Amino acid sequence: MSKSLHIKPREPFAKSEKWNSATGCLTLAKAGAFTVEIQELKGFLDDVKHPKPDHVKRLKEEDFDKLSSWDKSTYKANMKVYDKQELFYEHSVQQIRNGVQWCWQVVGKGLAGKTMEHNESFSYGMPRDFLRQIRFPKLLEGGGLAWLEIFTENDPATGKRPHGIFVNATGTPKIIAAEWRDHTGNLITEDIAFGSTVYLHIYTEALYYQNINIQLVDDGWFTNTDLTPTPSDEDGDPIQKLDPKALTQFKRQVNTHPYNTTTKPPAGTITDALIFDKGKEQISAGNVQKCVFPIFIEHAWQFQAKGDFKSGNSLSIKPIVHHSKIENQEKKLNDCILKISVNGALKKGELTGNNPLLLGEAEKGGAPEDQKKIDFTFGVFIDGTNNNKYDTTARLDWEESRIGRKATDERPFTSDEYLKVYAKSEDELTKKNKEKYKYGQGSYENELSNVAILFENYYKDDITVFKIYTEGMNTNTLGTEDPKLIKYKKDDIMMGAVFGTGNSGIVDRVRRTIEQMRDKILQGLANNEKKLIQ
After folding, report:
1. C-alpha angle with apex 85: 81 to 89, nearest 5 degrees?
2. Is-contact 209 166, C-beta < 8 A?
3. 53, HSE (Cβ side, Cα atoms, 13 Å)
4. 20, 179, 216, 445 - which has most CB atoms within 10 Å?
5. Origin, by domain of life (predicted)?
6. Does residue 173 have a cis bond before it (omega within 30 degrees)?
7. How far is the C-alpha of 355 from the C-alpha of 239, rounded, in Å?
């Protein structure tokens, strides 16, 4: 059953693989193959049709020769029965293993409440060496997660770790190409009129599930002029805003989009087959990684245009893509100019205005899918200089071992107990004590701070509410979720406390806080919708 089947990435990890055991997420440097190890736990083979026979010791040839004729005959008969039972058992076990199914899904809006099923592009069963190689498609490079889980028909997928793992791939973000299309998906090759609805298709690499911005400019001979979109409501009516900073960019999310003969992407784009549910069947369809921007060619843009020697009768719209991870953080699409003129062809569509920051409004021709907003709450507790709850706890544990109990408000240590618990020198500590308690170090001798106490009592659900503790400056012990993995260290002498620099300085502590928040956010990314991937 799936509750008795676990999977994890095979170790040792390659340099291109990063495993976060806390979130159960494997991050690949780029798309490609990775290997998972299958673990059978106790109970998986409980329902085997033919039980495992009791072990019968096989005799060596010299021992067999010593038997009487009757014992030889009896032994042969018993071994024949045993071998037959063993064969039946092995066959029953293989039948169970051959029925194992694989869930391999893209995580979009969340696994909760979704039906997870076998991906038909996978063969049933598990390899005899309990290792399976999986291909992460280049189509999903960027920021999207995929979910991999092993399960059986009688015990369906759970969508929980450690029965499955999350996988993503980073890649190198690029803007590959861009095209202007109408609402039917056909390429626009002629001049079009003001008041038209058009769709800008930006083909990307390693930007899946990330937002990109585009800026539209009137491409003049000497200067470019921003074309400012007028925010509109769902009916296309302008929204009046007293905002001194006008919106100059559209924002949308990169996704995977199916294509047909009409919407076939240009050469060199990132394409692959995805498997989708269609009724009770799974179908495979070609998809491309891209972002689609629905744009209404506003009449007001005639008056914004300052193109050289133009009177407002025409525009040459050039897109500029903005994203922090592409080269130079922007790309001017000089080969993707849309010509607008008062005598151009009117491209009708469902838009009557622009909504530049709306994410996920579906439209014909492959608009971005809905982007789900997830609100996370973080309680962030950064301790003061020379305070570290892990160091303090190490000293308190040592004191408890000396007295045989902890000091409490109701029953504090007596004077004699204080004398006994206090170490006059480091020599009083055993070797085991010294591994944790660093005698004479300020962070160890300090009591738990208010920050540490507040952290311990702060509510969390590890779904959308998280708490983070960051050790104070001048201390070098860094905590982990597994106390056994904590490496206790002495405090800094000067750099952290006096100057706030070095490995225990303010910059390091801010970085550590942000990294912990990043890891917690990865836990929350389990709330995204699925797609099956091939």
Report:
1. 170
2. no
3. 17
4. 216
5. Bacteria
6. no
7. 10
| 3-state helix, strand and coil shares in percent for the chain, rounded to the nearest 5 | 25, 30, 50
DSSP letter assigned to residue 497 = I
Amino acid code (one letter) for 122: F
- This prediction has a pTM of 0.60
Rounded to 5 degrees, what are φ and ψ at 229? -70, 140
What is the rounded CA–CA span in Å between residue 396 and residue 445? 9
- In sequence order, the 6+-apart residues with CB closer than 8 A to the CB of 524 are 374, 376, 463, 464
Cβ pair 383, 449 in contact under 8 A? yes
Residues in contact with 90: Cβ distance below 8 Å, sequence separation at least 6, in sequence order: none
In angstroms, how far apart are the furthest CA atoms of the chain? 116
Cis, bond preceding 294 (omega within 30 deg of 0): no
273 strand-pairing partners: 286
In this structure, which amino acid lies at residue 133? Q
Q: How far apart are CA 286 and CA 425, in angstroms?
A: 72
Q: Are strands 330-332 and 281-296 parallel, antiparallel or unpaired?
A: unpaired
- Retrieve residue 209's tokens: 């599930």
